[in-house]
Amino acid sequence: MRICRFIWKNKQKYGIIVNNKIWDFMDEINSTKDHLYAMDFIRFFNNNIKLIKQKINDNSMENLIDFDRELLLAPLLYPSKIICLGLNYLDHAKETGTKLPDRPMLFTKASSSIIGPNDQIVIPTLKKDGKYVPIKFIDYEAELAVIVGKQMKKIKVDEVNNYIFGYTILNDVSARIEQKKDKQFFRSKSFDTFAPIGPWTVSQDEITDPMNLKIQSFVNDELRQNSNTSNMNFNVYEILSFISEGITLYPGDIIGTGTPAGVGVGMNPPQSMKNGDIVKIKIEKIGELVNKIA
């Protein structure tokens, strides 16, 4: 299933894309809570999954809306946390001149940085010499993102798949100069609009092997990253198991799994995204996430 958030008649809703229509399923199953945060939505979805599947299988859906990408919002609203990995692809470690870590290298992004597939990545301004000026060197990072489906704590690697809700695309937008100055990643990767996700969530049952997906990024249609999730150092299941050893993961939490080679800072010469650029990320079996720089 492709599960989305969308705007309809000035209301933010959750839907399922079926036969080029958006099914407003929450309204149909008597929910009065369209505007749920990530954790509550996934719990609601899990509690009603049998009815949802039955209606799709029987083709008895009502409340169908013609699909239009312009209606789409970020597929999840305010997850309790976004946890990402640094240096999880060998080729990306090489282009940054860094050794692969011997354990997953974790950092977080603020959930307030999330935007959707139709939103703009806005170059932040910071105070310098008493004036606010745009920061320099904004970079893209194409990532497969895992959406947690059930509360996780101390889950073994071979059990992790039972706790995954689905997958989406994350652009781990990064302010490289601030990242270097701060010597840690949180602020430089958490500026407002720095976490585009989407265009929807693909349910876990439709991606049986997340470790063999083509992943690409383009800037103004120029191919920049071109890899496969099979090139990860730590796989999806190892990552989530490692995190859950000491951190409880909740439904709706987003886990970024790292980015392959081809980011702007690794080019010769380095290439920053700039005002007006269009960045597109494509992941096999999920789709594409497109955002404009402003």
Q: Keyphrases for this structure?
A:
alpha+beta; globular; Fumarylacetoacetate hydrolase, domain 2; single chain; 21 strands; 294 residues; twelve-stranded mixed beta sheet
Structural overview:
- There is one protein chain.
- The chain is α+β, with helices and mostly antiparallel strands and 294 residues long.
- The chain has 2 domains: 2-73, no CATH class; 82-293, Fumarylacetoacetase-like, C-terminal domain (Fumarylacetoacetate hydrolase, domain 2, Alpha-Beta Complex).
- Helix content is 16%, strand content 35%.
- It is built from 6 helices and 21 strands.
- It has helices at 25-28, 38-47, 49-58, 90-95, 176-182, 236-246; strands at residues 2-8, 11-18, 21-23, 64-66, 72-73, 82-86, 105-109, 114-115, 120-121, 125-128, 131-134, 138-139, 142-148, 164-171, 174-175, 195-203, 214-219, 222-228, 254-256, 278-283, 287-293.
- Strands 1, 2, 3, 4, 5, 6, 7, 8, 13, 14, 16 and 19 form a 12-stranded mixed sheet that branches.
- Strand 20 (278-283) and strand 21 (287-293) form a beta hairpin.
- The two termini are 32 Å apart.
- The relative contact order is 0.20.
- The model has no long low-confidence stretch (mean pLDDT 95).
Tell me the CATH topology of the largest domain.
Fumarylacetoacetate hydrolase, domain 2
The CATH superfamily of the largest domain bears the name Fumarylacetoacetase-like, C-terminal domain
Mean pLDDT: 95
Count of β-strands: 21
Q: What is the CA-based Rg, rounded?
A: 19 Å
Overall helicity: 10-25%
> Which stretches are poorly predicted, pLDDT < 50 over at least 5 residues?
none
CATH class of the largest domain, named Alpha Beta
Q: How many H/I helices?
A: 6
Specify the biggest β-sheet.
12 strands, mixed
Order of helices and strands: EEEHHHEEEHEEEEEEEEEHEEEHEEE
Domain module count? 2
Strand content: 25-35%
Euclidean distance between termini CA atoms: 32 Å
SS-derived structural category: alpha+beta
CATH architecture of the largest domain: Alpha-Beta Complex
The global form is globular
